[in-house]
Design brief:
mainly beta; two-stranded antiparallel ribbon; 61% strand
Length: 185
């Protein structure tokens, strides 16, 4: 089996394969569609690493090619205007934004490159899956999986083992659950 991060062999299958179904983020989103725009109230609850709560007011166009969204965080007194995620390649996106903090009296801009693939020396998949319960009520699950594929190798006459097996690793988790209520006119 593959050596652990500290050079020791894993002692159990639980160290090699771990699936965590306790989400660290719970979101409740209320949306109203008004004349080509979506107005939303997001209530966001975080339980790891510390318990935190955020509320956001969100405004964005309903058009399929929408290019922006406006976010106001009343608890932090922050205002942001974010671009849509702009695809650079099939798996790489760029998002830019400008914001103002009324508490800090500061204005600035940010950019972010994101992908659903990649990790630190490990392959990673990050994704969101949406399940429509009924018209106007959706559940969205944000999940990730870090993995190393199993590998079987062998050799003869080279001083390496005749048969060697790396059982691989899987660390999967359900990171976020969102409940989305949408009211259309």
């Amino acid at each position: 089996m593959e050596a652990g991060s500290n050079g020791e062999e894993p002692t159990s299958w639980e160290e090699l394969y771990n699936i965590n179904l306790v989400p660290s983020e719970l979101f409740v989103k209320f949306r109203k569609e008004i004349e080509g725009y979506r107005v939303g109230v997001n209530l966001e609850f975080y339980n790891a690493p510390i318990n935190e709560y955020q509320a956001k007011l969100v405004l964005k166009p309903l058009a399929h090619d929408r290019r922006w969204k406006f976010i106001y965080e009343p608890l932090h007194h922050d205002v942001r205007l974010l671009s849509k995620k702009i695809p650079i390649t099939k798996f790489l996106n760029l998002q830019v934004g400008v914001g103002h903090s009324f508490q800090l009296h500061a204005t600035g801009w940010k950019w972010k490159l994101t992908t659903c693939l990649g990790g630190d020396g490990v392959s990673r998949i990050r994704n969101k899956t949406t399940l429509g319960l009924c018209p106007g009520i959706d559940f969205r699950f944000g999940w990730r999986a870090d993995y190393v594929f199993p590998e079987i190798t062998g050799a003869m006459g080279t001083g390496e083992p005749l048969f060697n097996m790396n059982s691989g690793r899987l660390q999967a988790s359900l990171d976020r659950i969102e409940t989305i209520y949408t009211h259309t006119s």
